[in-house]
Every structure is written in structure tokens, then in C-alpha cells.
Specification:
The chain has helices at residues 10-22, 25-28, 63-69, 74-81, 265-270, 341-351, 355-359, 369-382, and strands at residues 58-62, 85-88, 98-101, 104-106, 116-120, 123-124, 143-150, 163-169, 178-184, 190-201, 206-219, 228-241, 244-258, 280-298, 301-318, 324-328, 334-338. By secondary structure, the chain is α+β, with helices and mostly antiparallel strands.
Length: 387
């Protein structure tokens, strides 16, 4: 009787194995392809991607978080509310902090390991020289949202080694309010911020909004010759429809910061307000225009773009090892004079003019270098000397 069993001979087995080895693609083709999704996030965070979908850690803060914290600036807020962030102040100025995150720095000082990219409305605000970050030119009261993104990401440009800080400013759509805030504190510190936003409907499909923010910081400082002031103005005009948006913003920042740095412990023990060298002055003057737009092509596809013009003039003077002295007249005007002890002694002995007192602002009648020269010439004429 015939049997249903098939007995494989050694020759048949060898033939089957060789067939599989010669044609491995037959087995590989049976495996389904693996899908890998790569999510790229634009610096302006305009794509609407949620933080939970990001392949890196994101610490997000809203304008309500910033208001409740009452921080002096963004670096102060990040220091108190973000894990892994700390600040120090080598300059000794509250608006010139060095922010440390993941071993990298965002600071206005050159020579530090800068490695954090900072974006405001899609525009990188790290300075071209040394990637420095001027915290005084970031108006905290005008910030609507802030994302601190950890890790190196090439999407944010060169030198983004430790992370990125992405800021989005308020507009008339997300902040249709008017608000005034004034604060005062020790060492003559005074801050003022005024902001107002409004939105209106043009027709059934489009809206127009405007927003204006002005902020001011002023203080005498806790040590000698350390008074500082900073002001920022931000104006925005935005239009949007169901599928498109267009916005134009302008920012003007002006700051006069003095931070005379650290001093030996021995001097600090004698006088807490003493300074070691002076002056250390940084003047920033910023003008920035930003134009941004977007259009929704389909439910899953959006195009957006940003154009900007940013011009920042920074003037600095460091008194370390300098042969110049700072002269601050009554009224606040300043001048730099070359050190000349012989001339100062001659003015005092022959004309009775105490230059140190004048440069300390103790003579209310002398408020400028021109008035000082006229005063010296008049005293020399009265003494019968050639001015």
C-alpha cells in the first residue's frame, strides 16, 4: 500500500539549503519596511508641533509664568524655574548675567564657552561677535511664551551645542489687554512696563491686531559708580485669515550698563560698596525689524517664512589697567580724562579748583566738559594766568 510520508534524502536536503543560501532576498523581501519619522522644528516654533512629540527635552513657560515669578529678566527667571540652569555675574551688573546650561553659556561677555542659540520670533539674537547674548535687549514683559530646548540641534544653526532658547513675543491676538506695572527696590532700583494690545475684525474671514510694549529699568547699583539704565520698545502689527497670517514688528533697545566686576576679599571686608577698577561701561543701541508670514496649503502642510533686519551698536570701555578716569558731572553727564596728577595739583594750588569734587558731581553749576573748561578759563583769567 502506498505511504503518505516523504523521506528526504541527503542529496535533496543539500539542494534545498543551497537554494536558500543562493537566494537570501526571498526571505528579506517578506519583512515589512520599518517607518522612521523625523520631526524638524523651525526656530520660530511656528509649525505647531507639541513638546510631547519632540525627540528632546523642552521646558516651556508662558507669559503668566513670567508675571507670577516677578523676575528681573529672562536669565533670572530661568535660574529659578528651570532645572539644570544657573547664573553668575562676573560683571556685577544685574542685566549682564552669565547663564550656564549643560556646560555651555549664554552671556554678554566674550571669551566664554558660548553654546546656546537664542531666538526671538524666529530671529537669532546671538551677536555676530562671539555669539554673545545681551539680556538687556530682551524685554521680559513682551514675551508671550518661552521654550528652553536641550541638546545639540543643527536646525537652530551653528554653535547650538548645549541647547536653544526660543522666544515668542506677544501680539494683539494673544494679548488683547492693557497693563501697567511699576516696581521699586533697594539701591534706587525702579522698573516700569506699559503694554497694550487690541484686535479687531476686518470681515468674516480676516482680523487685524496691534501691540505696543515699553519697558524701563533704572538703578544706582549697590557699589560705587555702578548706576545703570535700560529701555526697550516693541511694536507689532499683525493680520490673519483662516489660512494665512502676516506680521511686522519693530524693536528699539537702548541701555547704558556699568558693571565694575569683582574685587579682592580684603577690599570687600573694608567697604561692601568698594570697587577695584572703574569704569566698565557697555552701551547697546538696537534697531530691529521682523517680517513673518505663513500660509496653510492643506491640513497637513504649512509654509512659513521670516525676514529681518537687525542692527545693534555696542560701545564698551573697560577701566582695567586704563590711564583714564571717569568724571561724572552733576546731572549725570560723564567724561573720560587722562590721569594727570600734576595738572590736578596745579588746578588746586593755583586756582583753588577741586577736580575730584567736580567729577563726583558735587558742584551743581558744572554739568558738562564745556562748562568745566569755561570755569577753568575764568578762574585762570581772574588769577592773572594764561588759560
Amino acid at each position: 500500500m502506498p505511504s503518505g510520508k516523504t523521506i528526504a534524502t541527503p542529496q535533496a536536503l543539500a539542494l534545498a539549503i543551497s537554494t536558500v543560501l543562493l537566494h537570501p532576498n526571498t526571505l528579506l523581501a517578506a519583512e515589512p519596511p520599518q517607518e522612521i519619522a523625523v520631526i524638524g522644528v523651525a526656530p520660530g516654533a511656528t509649525t505647531g508641533q507639541q513638546a510631547l512629540r519632540m525627540p528632546f527635552a523642552v521646558k516651556s513657560s508662558s507669559f503668566a509664568d513670567l508675571e507670577s515669578q516677578q523676575s528681573l529678566d529672562l536669565s533670572d527667571y530661568l535660574n529659578t524655574r528651570s532645572a539644570g540652569v544657573n547664573i553668575n555675574s562676573a560683571q556685577g551688573n544685574p542685566l549682564q548675567a552669565d547663564l550656564q546650561f549643560r556646560g555651555f553659556t549664554a552671556s554678554p561677555l566674550l571669551g566664554l564657552p558660548q553654546g546656546i542659540a537664542v531666538y526671538q520670533d524666529g530671529v537669532r539674537i546671538n551677536e555676530p561677535l562671539g555669539d554673545a547674548v545681551n539680556w538687556d535687549l530682551l524685554p521680559e514683559s513682551a514675551i508671550y511664551s518661552m521654550d528652553l530646548i536641550s541638546g545639540a540641534n543643527p536646525v537652530f544653526g551653528l554653535n547650538t551645542l548645549g541647547g536653544a532658547l526660543v522666544l515668542r513675543t506677544k501680539d494683539g491676538f494673544n494679548f488683547p489687554h492693557t497693563q501697567v506695572e511699576a516696581l521699586t527696590g533697594s539701591w534706587g532700583r525702579q522698573t516700569l512696563s506699559v503694554e497694550s494690545g487690541h484686535a479687531l475684525s476686518l470681515n468674516a474671514d480676516s482680523e487685524l491686531a496691534w501691540y505696543l510694549n515699553a519697558s524701563l529699568f533704572d538703578e544706582e547699583g549697590w557699589c560705587q559708580l555702578s548706576d545703570s539704565e535700560s529701555s526697550n520698545v516693541l511694536a507689532r502689527l499683525d493680520w490673519r485669515s483662516a489660512a494665512s497670517s502676516l506680521g511686522l514688528s519693530y524693536q528699539h533697545g537702548d541701555s547704558d550698563l556699568i558693571g565694575n566686576g569683582a574685587l579682592p576679599i580684603g577690599m570687600l571686608a573694608l567697604d561692601r560698596s568698594a570697587i577695584f577698577t572703574a569704569p566698565d561701561i557697555t552701551d547697546n543701541n538696537l534697531k530691529a525689524w521682523t517680517l513673518h508670514g505663513s500660509h496653510q496649503l492643506s491640513p497637513g502642510l504649512q509654509i512659513s517664512g521670516t525676514a529681518f533686519l537687525r542692527e545693534n551698536h555696542t560701545h564698551s570701555f573697560n577701566g582695567d589697567g586704563s590711564e583714564f578716569e571717569l568724571c561724572e558731572y552733576a546731572g549725570g553727564a560723564r567724561a573720560l580724562f587722562e590721569e594727570a596728577d600734576d595738572l590736578e595739583d596745579a588746578l588746586e594750588s593755583q586756582l583753588g579748583i577741586e577736580l575730584d569734587d567736580i567729577c563726583a558731581g558735587e558742584d551743581p553749576s558744572i554739568t558738562s566738559t564745556a562748562l568745566l573748561k569755561a570755569y577753568i578759563a575764568q578762574a585762570a583769567l581772574a588769577a592773572g594766568l594764561d588759560a
